[in-house]
Amino acid sequence: MYCRTKNSFLFYYPKENRTGYYANELPFYFEDINTILIPQTVAHSEKNDPNKDIKFPRISTPFSSISENTRTTNVMCNVSFATKLTTFETRLNLSGQFSTLTRSFYLYGEMDSTLEACYYNPVYELSSSSKLISKEMTSRKATFPYECNFKFKYTDGIALSSPYNGTYKLSLKNWFNNLYDSSLEVKNRVTAYYPDFVYSDIHRYMIKLDKAIEITNLNDFNFKEENSYGKYVVTLKAMDETSYLLETTLIVNAEKVEPHKIGDVKSIFNKIEKMNVAELELKEK
Fold this sequence. Notes:
Radius of gyration: 23 Å
Strand content: 35-45%
Shape: elongated
CATH class of the largest domain: Mainly Beta
Number of strands: 15
Structural class: mainly beta
């Protein structure tokens, strides 16, 4: 549905659930589509007049770019060696398609049945031991790119293992809810791969430990992959004796990946999957 303003058009997507979309807000599968607008205010008598010059505008629907489709997850992660409890305080910033597709999920648990399940893996569901303490929407905007921000507080009781030979392990399982398909087929691929949309997705964890610790496998968390699909960068650095900053950046800038380069997509997916089962090895100084 649309209406005409002085210099442009406004599109409205019919409301299907409690949340709905704002004016000119469309999910990616309706973005940048060439379409013909059918006037709804023409008198019935004129519609059947063969000599009547009725205008049917041809336009493209609105679309969003990589600079607008962003998700940033900033986490303060406090690790207690005394209680083995890990506490997370998270700020989630959604923009563009990330807001359009997932804010209703965080607000009311609503999901678009046409999307992959990976869109609805909340950052606070790490394991069966995870407990969500609080969830709050802190701000949102009704104009493009429809920014929507949340903050969460949650805990996990099994992320930190008991020491073995003086070394603890901190599990990163499910810390990174990037969009990826673990079942992507590469062998004998004959069709191109189309990402849902171009975007950037950042996860940033400030890990605070309650005693001086050295991460002995720190070098395993500093790498970069860049190819025809996009870029995936992981960095881990010590801020002081008890603080470490772990950051991952996924940038998808390809609108299409040819079949002979499908291995590029799979390579980045594999690295994301590996990060979600990785462990930090912690040794007391």
